[in-house]
């Protein structure tokens, strides 16, 4: 039991190129990093290789920190999860100020609680039929919450992400782009600066536009004043496979635009 507890508290969730969970791994040296809900570093993966990348300027002598949990949650939820899984209470500035909690829970409480319950019930589908069920559930909830919840509500945002993923897996590209486009403003709000999740979301939407021959829109999304490029250059490094894919797609868009 002590060994199991140590592994549970110190393992890292391994993610693929689009920041989706694919497994867990134990990286002893990285387990020495402490938590902050507003960290100055993030962890990204290249296969099974763990990379520690800074997301903002770090002062000499400043401690390197990462977030042990999903920072999108409101303060009370983050505190509950940290206490439940890691047995400590966070006192970072983000928790002290409860910054952006109002935006995260905006809209009618009854509506977002219903969406929250539905989001928590979703398990990653393993078949086309299960993806169809997820999409139908998302569509019903998004329809019923229209006018009651803004897309900045974090549970609404998660529902949009699930709807986008479902459409991608069902090859409904146009509908996937619709849901993905609705998430971008919220990703910009909750993942400011150099955050890999924001870069990956921009890239996913850009790929959907590219696949539908929307080359000017795809190029603008991939560039966005070079946001996606700049973020991924910082968070993933220029040699990362995802960075190479982004640059290749961007160059293809530019080449197509020159020939039109």
Helix content: 55-70%
Overall spatial form: globular
What's the CATH class of the largest domain, please?
A: Mainly Beta
| Count of distinct strands | 6
Q: Provide the β-strand percentage band.
A: 5-15%
Sheet with most strands: strand arrangement: 1-2
Low-confidence stretches: none
- Structural class label: mainly alpha
Give the quaternary arrangement of the chains: single chain
CATH superfamily placement of the largest domain: SET domain
Name of the CATH architecture of the largest domain: Beta Complex
For the biggest sheet, the summary is: 2 strands, antiparallel
Tally the structural domains: 3
CATH topology of the largest domain: Beta-clip-like
Number of helices: 12
What is the terminal-to-terminal distance? 64 Å
Domain SET: 1-69
Catalytic activity: L-lysyl(4)-[histone H3] + 3 S-adenosyl-L-methionine = N(6),N(6),N(6)-trimethyl-L-lysyl(4)-[histone H3] + 3 S-adenosyl-L-homocysteine + 3 H(+)
Pfam family, one: SET
EC number: 2.1.1.354
Describe the protein's architecture and organization.
This protein is mainly alpha-helical and 260 residues long. It folds into three domains: 98 residues, SET domain (Beta-clip-like); 86 residues, Serine Threonine Protein Phosphatase 5, Tetratricopeptide repeat; 69 residues, Serine Threonine Protein Phosphatase 5, Tetratricopeptide repeat (Alpha Horseshoe), CATH 1.25.40.10. It contains twelve helices and six strands. It has a two-stranded antiparallel ribbon. A two-stranded parallel sheet has the order 3-6.
């Amino acid at each position: 039991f002590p060994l199991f507890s140590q592994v549970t508290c110190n393992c890292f969730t391994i993610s693929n190129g689009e920041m989706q969970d694919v497994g867990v791994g134990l990286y002893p040296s990285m387990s020495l990093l402490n938590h902050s809900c507003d960290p100055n570093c993030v962890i990204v993966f290249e296969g099974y290789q763990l990379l520690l990348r800074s997301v903002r300027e770090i002062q000499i002598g400043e401690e390197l920190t990462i977030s042990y949990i999903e920072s999108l949650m409101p303060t009370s939820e983050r505190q509950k999860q940290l206490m439940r899984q890691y047995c400590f209470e966070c006192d970072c500035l983000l928790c002290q100020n409860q910054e952006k909690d109002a935006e995260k829970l905006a809209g009618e409480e009854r509506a977002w609680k219903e969406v929250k319950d539905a989001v928590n019930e979703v398990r990653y589908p393993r078949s086309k039929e299960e993806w169809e069920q997820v999409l139908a559930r998302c569509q019903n909830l998004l329809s019923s919450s229209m006018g009651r919840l803004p897309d900045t509500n974090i549970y609404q945002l998660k529902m949009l992400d699930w709807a986008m993923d479902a459409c991608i897996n069902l090859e409904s590209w146009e509908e996937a782009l619709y849901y993905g486009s609705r998430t971008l403003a919220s990703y910009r709000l909750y993942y400011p600066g150099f955050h890999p999740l924001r870069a990956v979301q921009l890239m996913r939407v850009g790929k959907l536009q590219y696949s539908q021959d929307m080359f000017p829109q795809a190029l603008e999304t991939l560039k966005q004043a070079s946001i996606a490029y700049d973020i991924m250059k910082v968070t993933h490094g220029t040699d990362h496979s995802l960075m190479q894919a982004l640059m290749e797609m961007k160059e293809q868009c530019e080449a197509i635009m020159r020939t039109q």
